[in-house]
Amino acid sequence: MSISSVDGALDRARILLRPAAQAARAASNEGFIDLIGPVEAPQPTAAQRAMNSKFVAAIYERLWRPVGVAALGFYGLSGMDERAKAVKDLRLRDDKKVLDVACGPGNFTKSLGAALSDQGIAIGFDISRPMLLQAARENRSGTAAYVRGDARNLPFDDGTFDAVCCYAALYLVPEPLTVVVELIRVLAPGGRIAIMTSYTREHPLISTPLTLGARTVGVRMFDRTTFTDIFADAGLTEIEQEIHGVAQFVTATKPAG
Question: 68-103 burial by CB neighbour count: b if 16+ within 10 A, else e?
């Protein structure tokens, strides 16, 4: 992988950012485009503090996430299977533009970019500087670049991306429903959206202790209809949901035209 191809991916990401004047001035000397500079990520909970830790960023993909998923009994997919599912659900190919929100250290983003042609781009977006420093060190490529900003106000025009996703993060971020509305906004007509997040069971004997326990560390639990309803209200079609343990995968298409 050449330096020029990596820098080219960063340049193509910068072109998509709005407002263009701010994007042109944003620093990228750390290997990602930083739109918010000294602004720190919100860290009111233990879970959010972990996501902004240099230590967790370094071990996230190899240890932290697999152990956390196993402990919660989330969904039984290996990292490789999960990435393959995302590529399939998002229908990635050719020169598509993909946005991966709350990308963490970028392993997922890089794999999405690998499904594209040389002119495609997968942009990993996160607010955590430690996570993006790790992404810039290990997971940049000619089709994967990274941007630091706040997902509650995505710096892209309406309809910018052919595919958008947010995996294993909505249960941690502030204002998760606002983030989902933003994902839908920047999705182009005909484009695909895919999320994976937490799911609380219907039976109160299970859902009540599960929700209370998760809340103590700053993890939200969502019911079966939260995201399918948001997608339906936004006019999305082909809405599909898979439940695996206490995880849910939800996908949909924004109608063309």
Answer: ebeeeebbebeeeebbebbbebbbbeeebbbbbbbb
